[in-house]
Design goal:
Helix content: 40-55%
Shape: globular
Order of helices and strands: HHHHHH
Structural class: mainly alpha
Number of strands: 0
Distance between the termini: 29 Å
Strand content: under 5%
Number of domains: 1
Length: 148
C-alpha cells in the first residue's frame, strides 16, 4: 500500500480516509488518484487532501442530486448495512449515532454547508479509529471537492 506500517488503518495508508470503494462498473479516474492500483477494493490517492476532495465531491452529489443532507441520510447511503451482494457489512445505525454525537447535531437535522468539514472529520474518525489530519487539510480538500 502507501505506507510500510501495516498497523496503520487502510484508509490512512491509501490516503482515502473515508474509504471510497473502487467502482469496477464505471471507469472513473479521480483527481489525484494514485497511479499504482495496489488495493483492488478501495481507491488510493496521492495525498490525504485528494482523498478528502473525492469524498467531498460525493457528499456534494448526495446533497444536490439525491437530497441527502442529514447525517442519517448521508451515512445510510455511504455505509448501508448490506453490500451489493446482500452480505452484512456495516453497523449503519452505530455509524450515524457516532457521527451525530461527534458533531453535536441531531441525525435528522439538515446540514449547512459549513457543517461538512466537521462531518468529514467525524466520518474519518469512524472509518479509521483516528483522525490524524489538520483542519487545513480537511478544509482544503472539502473546498476543492464541494465547490469545484
Amino acid at each position: 500500500m502507501m505506507s510500510a506500517r501495516s498497523d496503520t488503518p487502510r484508509g490512512i495508508r491509501n490516503n482515502n480516509p473515508l474509504n471510497i470503494r473502487e467502482n469496477h462498473r464505471v471507469d472513473y479516474d479521480w483527481e489525484g488518484e494514485h497511479p499504482l492500483d495496489l488495493d483492488s477494493e478501495f481507491e488510493e490517492f496521492v495525498s490525504p487532501q485528494k482523498g478528502i476532495r473525492a469524498a467531498a465531491r460525493i457528499l456534494r452529489n448526495y446533497r444536490v442530486n439525491r437530497g441527502l443532507d442529514t447525517v442519517s441520510g448521508i451515512i445510510s447511503r455511504w455505509a448501508p448495512p448490506k453490500n451489493e451482494k446482500g452480505e452484512f457489512e456495516n453497523h449503519t445505525e452505530s455509524y450515524i449515532k457516532s457521527v451525530a454525537q461527534k458533531i453535536n447535531i441531531d441525525p435528522h437535522q439538515v446540514l449547512s454547508e459549513r457543517d461538512y468539514p466537521s462531518l468529514i472529520k467525524a466520518m474519518i474518525y469512524h472509518e479509521n479509529g483516528q483522525q490524524p489530519y489538520s483542519s487545513d487539510t480537511i478544509n482544503q480538500g472539502f473546498q476543492e471537492g464541494f465547490y469545484s
